[in-house]
Amino acid sequence: MHEPQRVRIQRETLERFCQRVFEALALCEEDAWIAAAVLVAADARGIPSHGVARLRRYVDGLRMGLMRPDAPIETLSDTPTSVLVNAHGAMGAPVSYRTMRSVIEKARAAGAAFGCVRDSNHFGIAGYYAMMALPEDMIGFAMTNSAPLAVPTFGRHMMTGTNPIAFAAPAHEEKAFVLDMSTTVVTRGKIEVYDRLGKELPEGWAVDPEGRTARDAGSLLQAMTDRVGGGILPLGGAGELLGGHKGYGLSVMVDILCGVLSGGAFGRGLYDTATSMARVAHFFGAIRIDAFRDPLAFRHDMDDMLRQLREAPPVAAEDRVYFAGQKEFEREAEALSQGVAVLSQTYEEICAIGDEQGVPAPEALG
After folding, report:
1. Under 8 Å between Cβ of 144 and 164
2. What pLDDT score was predicted for residue 125?
3. Same domain assignment for residues 289 and 346
C-alpha cells in the first residue's frame, strides 16, 4: 500500500483556522484559542488520532448542542490542595486547561495539588495538561475516562474506556520525559485512522462481537457504536500471558480517579445520547519538585537517566532506543520547521468545515 498523501500547514495558521471555526460556533475567543491549541498540538507532536481529524466531531457537537459553548463552569469543592469542577457539558479543553492551571497554583503554595472535572467532554491529548507543569519545576499528571471502548480481560463487551494516563517530568539538557498513553493497545482514534486509510487492523488490537480478532476497522467501529459487542483490547492484549490484565487494571484505576472520585459518570454509564455526548471526567495533579529536593539537581539526574536510556544499544532491526516523549518532541521540531503534517483527506475535511462556517481554508505549504 502506498504511503498516504499528507499536506503541511504552518502551525500558527492551523491554530488560527481552528480558533476561528470555534468562534463561529459561539466559543469565546479565549476558549476557542485553548481548544485550537490543544487540537493542533496533537498533530504537531505526531498524534493524528487526536488532532484536527477530530474537528468534525467538535463542530457537530457544538452545532447540535451536545457540547455547550456557554456552559456555566461550577466549582463544587475548593481546598488548598484540591479542586472539583462541574463542567456542565462544556468543551473539554478550556475547562481542563483552567483546572490544571488552578492545580499548578495550588501546588506552588502547598507542594502538591490535585483536581477533578466531571460532566465534561473530550479534552484532546492528556499530555498537553501534564506538560503544563514542566516550566514550573513541577511533575504533572493528567487522566481522563471515556465512553466504553475496551473489553476487559476475558471479556468481549466494552466495559471501560481507553482511559489515558499522562505523566511529565522535566530535565535540564535532555527533553522532558512525557509519558502519554492509553490503557488500551490503541485508541479509537487509531482505529478511525485505519478506517480512513482502508487498512486492515493488526492482530492483537481488538476483538469483534464474538471475541475473535477484529480485522475490518469499519465493521468494528460500527459494532462499537451499536454497542453489540467487540472492542479494543487492554494494554498487553488478550488474556493474561502478556499482561493484558495489567492494562485492564490501569483502565479501571483511571475510571476511579476520574469518574468515581469526581462523582461523575464511569464505566458503562458513559455513552452518547440524543441530547449529549458521553460526559466524561478528568483528573489532574502537580507536584512541586523542591518539596523534595533541589529542582536543578533533579533535572541533572533526569538528564543522566534519560541519556542512559537514549544511548542504550538497540536491537539489530532498529536504529535507536527512545524514552517517552522523545519522538513527539522531534516531530514537534519538524512541524515547526516544515509545517504540521495532516492527511490529505483530513485537510479536505477541515476545508469543508471552514466553508460551512465561513472561515477561509488554512493555506497549505509548498
Report:
1. yes
2. 97
3. no
